[in-house]
Amino acid sequence: MLAILLPGLLVILFTRVTYNHYVGLILTVALIAASVYKGYTDSWLLMIADAASLTIGFWYSNLMMKKTKRSA
């Protein structure tokens, strides 16, 4: 369940902190890569759920950044 929600939320959080959606995505991918390296992600289904959540989080953070730039 966390694999579906957490990566997307992390992308959004890091985007809000760094004001750059690419940096948010890179930081989140680095965290997921570290967890895979340590052995916490052991099935392909979890990796697919992480990737889908990353994609949705990146899409939403991209929209969020566009709205921020328009209003400024």
How would you characterize this protein structure?
- By secondary structure, the protein is mostly helical.
- The protein is built from 3 helices and no strands.
- The longest helix is centred in the last third of the chain and has 28 residues, at 44-71.
- The termini are far apart.
- The model has no long low-confidence stretch (mean pLDDT 92).
Q: Strands, helices and their partners?
A:
Layout: H1 2-18, H2 21-38, H3 44-71
Helix pairs in contact: 1-2, 1-3, 2-3
Compact overview of the structure:
It is built from three helices and no strands. It has helices at 2-18, 21-38, 44-71. Helix 1 (2-18) crosses helix 2 (21-38), helix 1 packs parallel to helix 3 and helix 2 (21-38) runs antiparallel to helix 3 (44-71).
Strand tally is 0
Main pleated-sheet profile: none
Summing up helix and strand content along with how strands pair, one would put the structural category as mainly alpha
Q: What number is the mean pLDDT?
A: 92
Secondary-structure element series: HHH
N-end to C-end Cα span:
36 Å
Return Rg in Å.
Answer: 13 Å
Helix content: over 70%
Number of helices: 3
Low-confidence stretches: none
Categorize the overall geometry.
elongated
Instruction: Tell me what portion of residues adopts beta-strand conformation.
Output: under 5%
Structure keywords:
72 residues; mainly alpha; 3 helices; 0% strand; elongated
